[in-house]
Amino acid sequence: MNAYRPTQSSNYWLFALKILILVLGLYLSALILSKVFSLVFAVTFFLIRILVFIAVTFIVLHFFLKLLFKVDLIQTSKGFIHR
């Protein structure tokens, strides 16, 4: 039975080729994923910004209505929802 055993020098070239393919694959995936993640992060940041704006607006409105007119916005909205 004759089994192929590569020589010591061809093992180095094969190892170098595998490392090169790995580096190129990682570089290509980084290029693609940077575009995808930048889009995902931009959309997520925009949505979080809108949600924070709505929450802060509600809190400030609640505070001023309670301070100026003694109207509890939370209780009023609960009563409005239950109708």
Shape: rod-shaped
Largest sheet: none
User: What is the end-to-end distance?
Assistant: 88 Å
H/E element sequence: HH
Low-confidence stretches: none
What class do helices, strands and sheet pairing give?
A: mainly alpha
Number of strands: 0
Rg from alpha-carbon coordinates: 31 Å
Percentage beta strand: under 5%
Helix % is over 70%
Structure annotation, total helices: 2
Mean model confidence by pLDDT = 86
General description of the model:
By secondary structure, the protein is mostly helical. It has two helices and no strands. The mean pLDDT is 86.
Secondary structure topology:
Layout: H1 8-69, H2 73-82
Put the structure in a nutshell.
By secondary structure, the protein is mostly helical. 87% of the residues lie in helices and 0% in strands. The chain contains 2 helices and no strands.
List keywords for this structure.
single chain; 0% strand; 2 helices; mainly alpha
